[in-house]
């Protein structure tokens, strides 16, 4: 009688890598009204009144402030929409993105 050997089945789980995250950064300028910046932060980034005010003040004092962190597509979309909201009103409001370290 021939000898039968069995091998255990090996399940290979594909390893999915988490997407890299990107920071949305508010760049301070001396022309956009503070109230408008707060309105954009509340509308686009869903920040509370207090959070939006703190982000705006931090950007005003330090020159820049990280607003939030998202995946690349979301971060770029939100930064573009927020910047476009400022342009629509004639303000030089600027949001940028950069990879999180």
Question: What can you tell me about this protein's structure?
Answer:
It is a single chain. By secondary structure, the chain is an alpha+beta fold. A three-stranded antiparallel β-sheet has the order 2-1-3. Helix 1 packs across helix 2.
> Number of helical runs?
3
Largest sheet: 3 strands, antiparallel
Note the run of SSEs as H and E.
EHHEHE
Mean pLDDT: 93
Helix content: 40-55%
Structural class: alpha+beta
CA-CA gap between termini: 63 Å
Percent strand equals: 15-25%
Domain Adaptor protein ClpS core: 18-96
GO molecular function: peptidase activity
Subunit structure: Binds to the N-terminal domain of the chaperone ClpA.
Family: Belongs to the ClpS family.
List the helices and strands and how they pair.
Layout: E1 21-27, H1 34-45, H2 49-62, E2 64-71, H3 72-88, E3 94-99
Antiparallel strand pairs: 1-2, 1-3
Helix pairs in contact: 1-2, 1-3
Short account of what is shown:
Binds to the N-terminal domain of the chaperone ClpA. With 101 residues, this protein is α+β, with helices and mostly antiparallel strands.
Looking at this protein, list some descriptive labels.
alpha+beta; 101 residues
């Amino acid at each position: 009688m021939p000898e039968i050997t069995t091998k255990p089945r090996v399940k290979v789980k594909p390893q999915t890598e988490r997407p890299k995250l990107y920071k949305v950064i508010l760049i301070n300028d001396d022309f956009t009204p503070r109230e408008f910046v707060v309105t954009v932060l509340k509308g686009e980034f869903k920040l509370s009144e207090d959070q939006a005010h703190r982000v705006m003040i931090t950007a005003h004092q330090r020159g820049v402030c990280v607003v939030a962190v998202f995946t690349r597509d979301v971060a770029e979309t939100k930064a573009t929409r927020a910047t476009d909201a400022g342009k629509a009103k004639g303000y030089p409001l600027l949001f940028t993105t950069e990879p999180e370290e």
